[in-house]
Amino acid sequence: MTIADDVSTLWIRRYHPATRAGTRLVCFPHAGGSATFFHPVSATFSPKADVVALQYPGRQDRLREPCVNDIGTLADRIVDELVRLPERPTVFFGHSMGAVIGFEVACRLEDKGVNAPHTLIASGRRGPSTLRDEAVHRRDDDGIIAELKLLNGTEAGVLGDEEILRMALPALRGDYEAIETYRGDPEQRLRAAITVLTGDADTKTTVDEARAWSRHTEGRFRIKVFPGGHFFLIPHKQAMNREIALELGV
């Protein structure tokens, strides 16, 4: 069954439905993130673009659902949703873990020949086949919280609210397990273009590791380096929006 342009589902959130949009932006959240992270992006680009934000299980209104702690499984489930959308010229935007999920989803959609993006914007993540020995998901709760503070990706108010933080920890642990156990195929390439956005002081991704995305496309590749760490996109919202607009053609 087709998902209409003004409909949200468990997986697909549309905060500003744009039924007459000529293009689509699909947004993939980071580890521990949720669809609401992209509410400002939706407000910026609707109604010119149909902005779709993915909501993974295990957070917010899906809190009671088990997290999916495997990137391939998560990509398969997202594909099952996106193939039901009406065809539009499409751009994928994913930050950190979301960049990898966007890549795996794009590969699957290209194989199916349905709703594949013409461009993947990979933000704050090294190339899919680069490896680091990371095991944040094996830490105790305090260890995961320490990682969040290091990355500065969660507002201080949330980190200081024990009840909210305890509710978020299972999703964070599951997401970290998914991305830390992921092993990308060095030979896997998209036909779509890849644009990479990265911070020059990101402890999770060096500029050289970000450039490694170039090995995973048969199309155009470009990279843009911003001042800042892993969540460089937050203080550079306007510049990020310009990069997205360039790829959307709006």
UniProtKB/TrEMBL annotation:
**Could you say which residues form the signal peptide?**
none
Residue stretches making up the Thioesterase TesA-like domain: 26-214
Q: What are its GO biological-process terms?
A: lipid biosynthetic process
Sorted alphabetically, the keyword list is:
Hydrolase
Q: Show the GO MF annotations.
A: hydrolase activity
Q: Which InterPro entries does this entry report, sorted A to Z?
A: AB_hydrolase_fold, TEII, TesA-like, Thioesterase
This protein's superkingdom? Bacteria
The family annotation for this protein states:
Belongs to the thioesterase family.
Protein's UniProt name: Surfactin synthase thioesterase subunit
